[in-house]
Design goal:
Layout (H helix, E strand, L loop, with lengths): L1 E7 L10 H7 L3 E7 L2 E7 L11 E3 L2 E9 L15 H8 L9 E9 L4 E6 L8 E4 L3 E4 L2 H5 L7 E2 L4 E6 L4 E6 L13 H14 L5 E5 L4 H12 L5 E5 L5 H10 L3 E5 L3 H14 L6 E3 L10 E3 L2 H18 L2 E5 L4 H4 L4 E2 L2 E2 L21 H4 L1 H15 L4 E3 L5 H9 L2 H6 L3 H9 L21
Helix pairs in contact: 4-12, 5-14, 7-8, 8-11
Length: 448
């Protein structure tokens, strides 16, 4: 996790005044470059390789990025993942983003060609906001830009790479990745291999790792794979409305360091107040099919703030214990059923109701696959982790994991709720409650 801010140097007299919130996201080192009348500011959270300052500069090209590129060693003998970006851009132009495997937001200013490139990863896991007001303004936090301009501030969409000229005009937009919707695989073997690989690449670090462990499917399978592969980590559980016996059985599956947290009302309120005061803006408008209750077709996600309050409390504890890499369980709800199962929706914003037809292309992508709750909940996790200098990583959103799921036959997908996760836990005799949707209910049963 890092953060950056780019703007014309005449816009702000003291850019460091704007950096107080941004620096929380990258507490290890701040670096500033002024080039061609633009200020490039970058805050670093050092995770892997040598401690490397940004921006990267080569041949009158400037690059900043936030996130991790897991396959950077495929491109050369680089001692830090971001160092591959300019050379890849020089070789492949805008198409270079299709070569990358990771979670990232990337900005390239090519002053030779008067070109600006902005790219998200497939699911836009790392925030990037931008606008054009007599020059580009680009930032990891929307709230910072709102203090500088009255122009509309846009969030870079998922799976998007945009090429602009320096006048702010779009030259070309491409997808970062194109999923195949053919459904032809009749077992879970390749999906399991992809998921294990996804966990391993995200834990290949000397930094300490943690998860939030619930009694549901998503965090459970991350816990299972970490334990099976003897990866050191810590898990945190807010008791709330969790099925404690299920979690105890999980802890006994292979022992690890788990903390049960009794959340008190005053702790919860303190955490919620902190979130409301400091967290950057989130997407809260969710497309819904419940037009009787929501005539406009959109509802607000009321659980963004209270869920963030619980997550914030865990992150606060984890950071004190020097845990800075968080493996998130985000994704399966949206990808493996869209909050439904067997044609029955669990939420009013489900479109496919947990049923996959024989021709997947007829429904792909449903709204929550890229947008809707996917976008809102990633924003929630990123905005919360930003306040603690914790890097969120998303094993379920790995492109190979998602693609392998899409390739499963519709019969396999429809057989069980979140079928690959059901299969994985059953295969390894890991405790879970079958075909039950369990959410993060951190504000339940608060202690007085």
């Amino acid at each position: 996790m890092c953060s950056f801010l780019i703007l014309l140097d005449k816009v702000c007299n003291n850019i460091h005044d704007l950096n107080k919130l941004l620096k929380l996201r990258g507490p290890d080192k701040t670096n500033t470059l002024i080039k061609n009348n633009y200020i490039f500011l970058h805050n670093l959270l050092h995770i892997c390789g040598e401690l490397t300052l940004q921006p990267f500069i080569k041949d009158n090209i400037v690059c900043l990025f936030n996130g991790e590129i897991y396959n950077y060693k495929e491109f050369g003998n680089y001692n830090s993942d971001g160092k591959c970006l300019i050379e890849l851009y020089q070789k492949y132009d805008q198409e270079f983003v299709k070569k990358l495997d990771g979670e990232f937001a990337i900005v390239i200013f090519d002053f030779n060609k008067n070109i600006v490139i902005l790219s998200s990863d497939i699911f836009s896991t790392k925030p990037l906001f931008y606008c054009y007001d007599n020059g580009f303004m680009i930032c990891s936090f929307k709230s910072v830009l709102k203090n500088l301009t009255n122009k509309e501030i846009l969030k870079l969409s998922n799976n998007t790479c945009i090429k602009f000229n320096l006048n702010g005009e779009i030259i070309k937009t491409i997808d970062v990745y194109n999923f195949c919707t053919k459904q032809y695989k009749n077992n879970f073997d390749d999906w399991e291999k992809a998921f294990v690989k996804s966990i391993l690449k995200r834990t290949n670090t000397t930094k300490e790792i943690f998860i939030t462990l619930s009694s549901g499917y998503d965090s459970g399978c991350i816990d299972l794979v970490l334990k099976n592969n003897k990866i050191n980590f810590k898990s945190y559980t807010i008791k709330a409305a969790e099925k404690v016996e299920t979690i105890k059985k999980r802890n006994n599956f292979i022992r690890n360091n788990n903390m049960f947290i009794e959340l008190y009302k005053d702790e919860y309120q303190e955490s919620r107040d902190y979130i409301n005061k400091n967290m950057d803006e989130n997407i809260t408008k969710i497309k819904t099919t419940n037009l009787k209750q929501y005539p406009t077709g959109y509802s607000n996600l009321s659980n963004i703030t209270w869920a963030s309050a619980g997550l914030n409390h865990i992150f606060k504890i984890a950071k004190k214990e020097n845990k800075i890499i968080y493996l998130s369980g985000q994704g399966p709800d949206e990808i493996m059923g869209d909050y439904g199962f067997n044609k029955k929706p669990f939420k009013h914003f489900s479109e496919i109701n947990g049923y996959f037809p024989s021709d997947l292309s007829k429904i792909f992508p449903w709204n929550n696959f890229f947008n809707g709750t996917m976008r809102a909940f990633i924003d929630k996790e990123e905005a919360t982790s930003s306040l603690h200098g914790i890097e969120g990583r998303y094993p379920y959103l790995d492109k190979e994991v998602v693609q392998e799921y899409l390739w499963l036959s519709n019969d396999l997908k429809n057989k069980n709720y979140k079928a690959p996760l059901y299969y994985l836990m059953k295969k390894y005799k890991y405790s879970f409650d079958k075909n039950v949707k369990i959410g993060f209910k951190c504000k339940r049963n608060l202690k007085k």
